[in-house]
Amino acid sequence: MDPNEWGPILIVGVGFGLLALLVTAIWFSRSLQRQQERDHAERMKALEMGFYVPPHESPWPRTIACVSIGGIVPLGTFVCAAWMTSLTVPESIQATVWGLTFMVSTMAVGCATSLASRLPRSSDRVKETAATGKPPAFDPESFEAISAYSNRGGRG
C-alpha cells in the first residue's frame, strides 16, 4: 500500500481507540457511582440497626504529605543549593552544599516512598480496631481509678 492511503485507516483506527476509551471511562464512572451508592446504603442500614459505623477516612491528607516530602523537599533543597552556588563562595563549600543536598533529597524520597507503600494498609487498621470493639490503648478511666486509690492512701 502507498503511504498516502494510510491516512483514512489511521483516522478510523484512532477514532475506534478514542471510542473504546470513552466507553471504558463511562463504564468505570458508572461502576464507581454504583459502588458508592451501595456503600452509602450499607452505612445507612447499619446506622438504622444501631451498629457503630466508623467515619469514612480520606487517604488524600496522607497522600499530600507523601508528595510534599518526596517532591517539594528535594526541589527546595536543589533550589537552595543552586542559589548558594550562584553566590561567590569557595568551591569546597559548594561541594559540601551539593553533597548535603543530595543526601537530604535522597532521604526525603526514600521516606516518601516508604510512607506511600504503607498508605493502602493504614486505613485497614482503623477498620480492624472498630470491628474488634477493644478499648483504646489509653483509657482515662483506668488512670482515674488508680489516682483515686492512691489518694486514699492505698486503702480499698
Would you give an account of this structure?
79% of the residues lie in helices and 0% in strands. The N and C termini lie far apart (100 Å). It is flat. The longest helix is centred in the first third of the chain and has 43 residues, at 6-48. Helix 2 (60-86) packs antiparallel against helix 3 (91-132). It folds into 2 domains: 1-53; 57-134. The model has no long low-confidence stretch (mean pLDDT 78). The chain is an all-alpha fold.
Could you give the topology of this structure?
Blueprint: H1 6-48, H2 60-86, H3 91-132, H4 140-151
Helix pairs in contact: 2-3
Number of domain modules: 2
Share of helix, binned? over 70%
Please summarize the sheet with the most strands.
none
Radius of gyration: 29 Å
Number of strands: 0
**Average pLDDT score:** 78
User: What is the string of helix and strand elements?
Assistant: HHHH
What structural category characterises the helix and strand content? mainly alpha
